[in-house]
Design a protein that fits this description.
It contains 4 helices and no strands. It has helices spanning 2-26, 33-55, 61-88, 96-121. The two termini are 25 Å apart.
């Protein structure tokens, strides 16, 4: 069930990414919305890939789940803060974008560890 929930969340990330890219092209060019949209789309694809890998049992489940959830949370924080600043003129909360970036980095490291642990376990 968790991979299915993650895929649904990835769909939301992807849709938000496309919306931010469109807003960056039409409503607020140069405001950073392109970067926010790209982060969302990139991590939406990563969440789908992780969900498939989890379903196939290819990764150490606890770390892979943490990584996938971190991708959703980190991308939302990073992109949400950038979008809010560009479109509403205020932040999500202080340091939201950098916090989201740190969560994304940690999530990629969790995915790496999940793969290495699965590899060592054979």
């Amino acid at each position: 069930m968790m991979p299915t929930i993650l895929i649904a969340l990835a769909g939301l990330l992807g849709a938000a990414g496309v919306m931010l890219l469109a807003a960056g092209a039409h409503a607020a060019p140069g405001a950073g919305l392109d970067s926010a949209g790209q982060v969302l789309l990139f991590h939406a694809a990563a969440v789908v890939a992780l969900s498939v890998a989890l379903h196939q049992g290819l990764l150490f489940r606890p770390l892979a789940l943490a990584g996938a959830i971190g991708f959703v949370v980190g991308a939302a924080l990073f992109s949400g803060d950038i979008a809010l600043r560009a479109l509403a003129g205020h932040r999500l909360f202080p340091l939201a974008a950098p916090s989201g970036g740190v969560v994304l980095i940690a999530s990629w490291l969790a995915v790496t560890a999940a793969a290495l642990i699965a590899l060592m376990r054979g």
